[in-house]
Amino acid sequence: MPHVTMERVIIVGGGIVGLTTAHALLKRGMDVLVLDAGPDSVTPSRGNAGQIAPGHPPIPSPAVPPQALQMLLDRRSPLFIPPRPSLPLTRWLVSFRLACRDRHYHNSMVTLGAMSAFSRDGFDALIEDLEANSTLTASGITDFWLTKQGEAEAEAELVWMEKLGFATTYLSGGELRARDPVWGETVRGAIVHEAGMTVDPACLCDELRRSICSLGGQVLQARSVTSLQQDHDSWSVATACGESHKADKLLVAAGVWSSPLARQLGVTVQMQPAKGYHTMLAMPQPPIMAGVLREAKIAVTPLGGRVRLAGTLELSGFNHRLDRARLEQLRRGAAAFLPGAASAQAGEPWCGLRPCTASGLPIVGRAAHNSWIATGHGMMGLTLATGTAAIITADMLGETIPSWAKPLQPKARR
Ligand SMILES: Cc1cc2nc3c(=O)[nH]c(=O)nc-3n(C[C@H](O)[C@H](O)[C@H](O)COP(=O)(O)OP(=O)(O)OC[C@H]3O[C@@H](n4cnc5c(N)ncnc54)[C@H](O)[C@@H]3O)c2cc1C
Question: Cβ distance 60 to 358 under 8 Å?
């Protein structure tokens, strides 16, 4: 028998993107080592809203510029940009403004729609692989609204969902309350996006890590990668604790911390950390249905007998400061839809940094010689994780990648 040497892949970053990719590569027979700077409870992959929401629109959209002044000045606004002197932020905002144009929004919806449908199929396969106690639930994600304007916006998105081929169910306020009585009389209607799923994101990361180890892979924590060097046909990866690891192939998937590593691969990644918060409520009667409160821009997810409220998008730089006023806004916004949220006991608040590109599209593809990058998933890292893993795996194995993935390719550094 000829001796077969498995190619070793190092993945920098053990968030949801790095872990799903490690899992996919191991299933295809690669030897995988994940190096992660954690354990880190602030990583967004562990504290996100847990919604897999195919067809979710990108952040830059034609609706954003008219609200720009409010975002700059009102700290209770869901999207808040406290003014601060920062050249990278200014550059990012200029690119973001260009990405709010109709044509870019249209193209992004098509790309993200295809990618999220592909990813949704990937989750079906993943459920079968993970242990029986997986918290993945295919219960749909619902869009709830209070006002006529909210209804009009939801209907405009419904047109997109139909174009992209996702099934939906329209519910009047009465029909909604017949299904799930905790929703207030103020909620005028809702649309269930049937392809949506929920999951406890921290459990999913833990299950993936276990599965990676049982497939023969390794996840090393407390390994902050500091340098990436090409060495003939291989890569040398150095960590802050003084280790050096060798790989045939390399993937950088370090969330919002990817930019300096991407530079070492000859790629420019223009990202801003977009802070989001969550709080867990213990409601005597929690909702059954998960979804998004349209006017308040808050995600509501029943998780383990409690309810996670997640939201706010704050461009205030690399920090994990919790703004109590914004946290309180989560509960106040939710109480307008779910009266029981007003008096429910709240658990320890959390915040994390989403990796947001100005274009609203993730960066997924090949960089320098035998190296890849997968980051910039913004509000959709969980939703797009298995699709990202499939693209990177196919490309590493020399297989054809779907044509809709072309706009996600990284840009060479100028
Ligand atoms: C409040 C909130 C709610 C959200 N809700 C949803 C949702 O419902 N659905 C959805 O699809 N998305 C949601 N998101 C977005 C989603 O959480 C992110 O897009 C996703 O977690 C990004 O995953 P990632 O693996 O790219 O990055 P991360 O989760 O940031 O993981 C990166 C990992 O890399 C490690 N790392 C960093 N630097 C280094 C280094 N130098 N060396 C080694 N390791 C390093 C970090 O420790 C971390 O573990 C939400 C985000 C927030 C904040």
Answer: yes
Predicted model pTM: 0.96
Domains of the chain: residue spans and CATH: 8-412 (3.50.50.60)
Please identify, by atom number, the ligand 1 atom nearest to the C-alpha of residue 260: 41
- For the Cβ of 276 lying below 6 angstroms from any atom of ligand 1, the answer is yes
Cα-Cα-Cα-Cα dihedral sign, residues 334, 109, 48, 256: negative
Q: Is 49 in the pocket of ligand 1 (CB under 6 A)?
A: yes
Peptide bond into 83 cis (omega under 30): no
Question: Tens place of pLDDT for every residue, the chain, 414 residues?
Answer: 444 456 899 999 999 999 999 999 999 999 999 999 988 777 999 999 999 999 999 999 998 888 777 777 777 788 888 888 899 999 999 999 999 999 999 999 999 999 999 999 999 989 888 875 678 999 899 999 999 999 999 999 999 999 999 999 999 999 999 999 999 999 999 999 999 999 999 999 999 999 999 999 999 999 999 999 998 889 999 999 999 999 999 999 999 999 999 999 999 999 999 999 999 999 999 999 999 999 999 999 999 999 999 999 999 999 999 998 888 999 999 999 999 999 999 998 999 999 999 999 999 999 988 999 999 999 999 999 999 999 999 999 999 999 999 999 998 876
* 254 C-beta closer than 6 A to ligand 1: yes
* 89 CA → ligand 1 middle, Å: 20
Cβ-based neighbours of 178, under 8 Å, separated by 6 or more: none
- The residue to mutate among 10, 17, 363, having the most atoms of ligand 1 within 8 angstroms of its beta carbon, is 17
Task: Please name the amino acid found at residue 385.
Answer: A
Q: How far apart are CA 390 and CA 25, in angstroms?
A: 9
For residue 55, the CA-to-ligand 1 centroid distance in Å is 20
For residue 57 and ligand 1, the question of a CB distance below 6 A is answered with no
Q: In the structure encoding, which two tokens stand for residue 185, read together?
A: 């009389």
State the distance from the centre of ligand 1 to the C-alpha of 73, rounded, in angstroms.
27
